[in-house]
Amino acid sequence: MAAANFEAAIALIDEAHSEDPTIVTINGKEIPYELHYAQKSTHYLGLREPNASPVLKTAVRAQHFRRWEVPRTTYPATRVGYFSWRTFLKKRQADLASGICTGCNYSAEEAEAVAALIRKEDMKSNVESQILEDVACLVFLDDQFEKFEKEHDEEKIVSILKKTWAKMSEGGQKLALEMELSDRAKELVGKALS
């Protein structure tokens, strides 16, 4: 894949992320949340797999593509509703990202590989799928866990942390243990791992 094709796709993905109406303040600067999420994902990909392929870099950058357009509240507040929402989002985000890739002259195989990664296909046999999952888990722990922790009881949090840990490879788990977490977060991770 030509570097210009990759750079064009990332620019279009980030342009779309910039349309997210949810604004967060990071280090005193306002930024659309999904752009922040994508940048943080790219950061963790660099730590997890410094030699990542352009296909994996594209998938990581686009894994939440235009997610704000389908809020969680559009599905029932049940476990089945949650999984239905996630399944729909993965397919939608994969299709939209694949379209961008095709428009930026990725080959059909490369565009489909990006889509398959976003859909999280072949998690056990595809190393890049596992790396993308590691990145998503690391971003959750770094960027979303503290808010999540305030909204749920300890039993649920420990259960979610156990599931998150089980999704990660050893490489992802090693990075997670090296993260700077609050004392409370460290305590909860300790309970999940005991």
Structure, explained:
The protein has 194 residues and is mainly alpha-helical. The chain has 2 domains: 1-119, no CATH class; 126-194, no CATH class. It is 70% helix and 4% strand. It contains 9 helices and 2 strands; from the N terminus they run αββαααααααα. It has helices at residues 3-17, 33-48, 54-62, 79-103, 108-118, 127-151, 154-167, 170-178, 183-193, and strands spanning 23-26, 29-32. A hairpin with a 2-residue loop joins strand 1 (23-26) and strand 2. Helix 1 (3-17) packs across helix 4 (79-103) and helix 6 runs parallel beside helix 8. It is globular. It starts with a helix and ends with a helix.
The fraction of residues assigned to DSSP E strands is under 5%
Query: Any idea how many domains?
Result: 2
* Low-confidence sequence ranges: none
Compute the number of helices: 9
Average predicted confidence as pLDDT: 93
> Could you tell me the radius of gyration in angstroms?
17 Å
Give the N-terminus to C-terminus distance in angstroms.
Answer: 45 Å
**Silhouette:** globular
What oligomeric state is this?
single chain
Attribute tags:
2 strands, 194 residues, 2 domains, mainly alpha, single chain, 9 helices, two-stranded antiparallel ribbon
